[in-house]
Amino acid sequence: MEPPDAWARTRGAPRLLVLALLLGAQPDAQAEVQVSVPPLVEVMRGESVALNCTPLGVHDYFMLEWYLADRSGVRHRLASGELRGSEIQGGVHSSRGRSPPYQLDSQGRLMLAEAQVGDERDYVCVVTVGATVTAEATVRLQVFAKPEATEVAPNRGTLSVTDDIAQEIATCNSRNGNPAPKITWHRNGEPLQVPMEVNTEGYMTSRTVREASGLQSLTSTLYLRLRKTDRDASFHCSVHYLLPKGQHGRLDSPPFGLTLHYPTEHVQFWVGSPATTEGWVREGDSVQLFCRGDGSPSPEYTFYRLQDKQEDVLKINLEVELSNGEELALPLGGSLATNCSVKGLPTPTLRWTKDSIPLGDGPTLSLSSVTFDSAGSYTCEASMPTVPLLSRNRILRLLVEGSPELRPEETLPKAEGSWTEGDEVRLVCSARGYPEPKLKWSQAGGHPAEPAPGGQGWVSSSLTLKVTSALSQDGVSCEASNPHGNARHVFHFGPVAPQTSQAGVAVMAVAISVGLLLLVVAAFYCMRRKGRPGCCRQGEKGAPPSGDPELSHSGSQRPEQTGLLMGGASGGARRGSGGFRDEC
């Protein structure tokens, strides 16, 4: 027979089970909740992105919140919502100056339209089930941006192969990418393995700049010790950049060559035609004589005829002239027609080039609606097809006059709300025109203008400063001016958030100020009370017993209230009556 207490426990078991089931059904009884978010979300700049936050398991109710974690670790609440039925209802509390603003959809996803580099942050999703049970997870957003077309500025001077040091070959520029790209150099299609350390054989330098938009620009300069074999070499640079999902991209610059200088070491001389085995020709035959040296640039050739021990110079050199001289200035949008004349036998051929790019054959160079890109050096080259390596050049320098053309390094501002008070930013302004424009900044500290990478007449000036709230309102402007006019550009930053430490100091300062003010008021009141006879004494002669204080004239105010409300003359009246004890 079972003991009585065993039967009691058996009867109580269903009640305990029902209670456990009821507790399990209550939100406050949840012991654990988990949140699933992707740790990393990748998106191209300008595209829309959705950040997912999904509580694991089945829940009848939960609250979801999105926070933005800034660089100092402080969280800023962006949006929140509650599960109502099958949808999450809520909204955005603060977009922190972002445009377009954040959005919260019915699935609890935080929506970002037109992603910018400034959106590269940590976003924290917090889910609360019941009153105390919470879980959170962090998703990092990475924004990719394809750089602009690769620009290369070769060294257009004459480089000597006799120098025993590495010389500057070219500068390669990649603008406005994210993350920062990489630059490699190539010779005849093969990559050059050059270190970053300076040495006599070859090296490269690199500099990365973060633009006002948050995008990154990279500049690389190549230095090499040249050889004769580099005379016909083709060089170019390549920009390698990252894309979402581990993909890569590549942008190549146009190829370019170099002008080398080295002395002639060997000369070849031979008869071209007619040619016989014995080397004899008939009287009256036309004879071609060839002379070739291995120097660079192509040397000048002089032919001599030896007869009766006398040397006679054969007149085969070319004489070239330009109809408009060697320098010409045109207004912006103007036209040009100039001629190049040459004398020589046999009749030479003429070709016009600019930066080694052929423009056309013949003596006339015609240009219309000239722009600043039209400015530069134009070369008229005269050569004799029948006499290899015999050529003469004349160079026409064209100047294009006009008001400045201004090009800010990056016109788009950094994503609004991503600047913090005290952040350092480097702004770059480039301009061109003729006469050469002067660049001026609205803030002090700008560097003097200097030729910009890429040439084409651009000069640039940079300004490095710290972002302040005043700059977020007024911006920073740069202005280019010359006698023909001026151009101006304003860099904007959007809202600037205060530093966390500064905000704490400000709150503390306000608290201290309020405390000091209260102390001053209390001291002033006490001093005022002490100035009257009998203040702060325990009692006066003739005062009534402490247990039976007299009433004021109104019959309703306590002595403390009367003492506070009445001053000056009224206080004197009370002292005369001796009706109250003064208290401080």
Automatic annotation (TrEMBL):
Pfam families: C2-set_2, Ig_3. Its main location: membrane. This is Basal cell adhesion molecule (Lutheran blood group). GO terms for molecular function: laminin receptor activity. The chain crosses the membrane at residues 505-527. Gene3D superfamilies: Immunoglobulins. Residues 565-584 have a biased composition (Gly residues). It is found in: Membrane. It is a single-pass type I membrane protein. InterPro entries: CD80_C2-set (IPR013162), Ig-like_dom (IPR007110), Ig-like_dom_sf (IPR036179), Ig-like_fold (IPR013783), Ig_sub (IPR003599), Ig_sub2 (IPR003598), Surface_Rcpt/Adhesion_Mol (IPR051116). The lineage of its organism: Eukaryota, Metazoa, Chordata, Craniata, Vertebrata. Residues 27-140, 147-239, 299-391, 404-482 form the Ig-like domain. Residues 1-31 form the signal peptide. SUPFAM superfamilies: Immunoglobulin (SSF48726). PANTHER family: BASAL CELL ADHESION MOLECULE (PTHR11973:SF17), CELL SURFACE GLYCOPROTEIN MUC18-RELATED (PTHR11973).
